[in-house]
Design brief:
Length: about 325
Amino acid sequence: GVTAWIDRATGRNLVDATGPWAFFRRYVERPIDPHATQDPLFQMDWGSWEIEHPSGWPQPRPYKVEPAGTLSGWRKVTNRLGTWVEYFSDEPDGVRARFVIEMPTDAPWIEFRVEWQEGVDPRPRSTYVVFPFALGMAQPRVDVGGVPMRPGTELLPGVNHDYFTAEDYVVLAGEGTGVTICTAFNPLVMFGTFHFGDAATEFPARPATFLGMITNNYWQCNFDPVQPGRVVARYRIRPYRGEFNEDAARRFATEAALRDPILQRLDEEKRPIKDLPASGTLLQVEGATAIHLKEREIWLHNPTDAPAIARLEPGLLTTPPISLNIGPRQAVRLRHR
């Protein structure tokens, strides 16, 4: 795995290489009992009042995390756009995983991708990608319903704290620094270490280790426990300094989720556009997030809990300069020429 990620602004290594888990490696978790199946839900007494409490559920069998795979080759490619590092690993569950690290020259983020071909093994297991950060006992914030929820302090009492579902991003906020992780493609996350089956109802301070749960066939449901084919996990991560900024986190996550460029086929009819430069800024927006842009219409959103002043300056769109107040978590619609 990765042993160092040096923040150029501070000279600080963001990777915790002292713990039990390697940075950006794939781990497989299985029940210790090799004969375990997905049947515990069928053993439930669904008429019992205890169904409302974690102690009333059949407790899952103990699990074990298998060691990471063995590296079997790597290469590096560098050009004016950035550097790509690719390496392969022979995993304990028999698959060959491909890892890719993308480091652009013009941006402070790094993107981590791993992919493999899932087989036809029906036995219960989960796969994870693990990122242990050197941020101490950082405070996680999970994007839930457009709100950066803090586990342990902003959840209903008694709910499960083993894992969480993030919409666009997760933040690990340390003392004066932190990281923002785009989770748009792989939303299930854990913190600290492997917690599946703990049925934790509290969230004490945990080390700043981020675990992305990629696959899981523990549950008995209406999906086949065998889902063969290509599996891809992708996380774009950016360090930040200072206090957590919700608007900056959401903007980064949105840009990461919409990374593919807009392309036009060469045989497609082109509209004549006069005086259009080779590059430029469509519209300059400060203090808000542009969540919708179409012909003659712009929607601006304030994702924070406090009122915000949004400022627009013209770019290629010939809209006049404007300042307006947007209430907490409110959106406004503007018309433009």
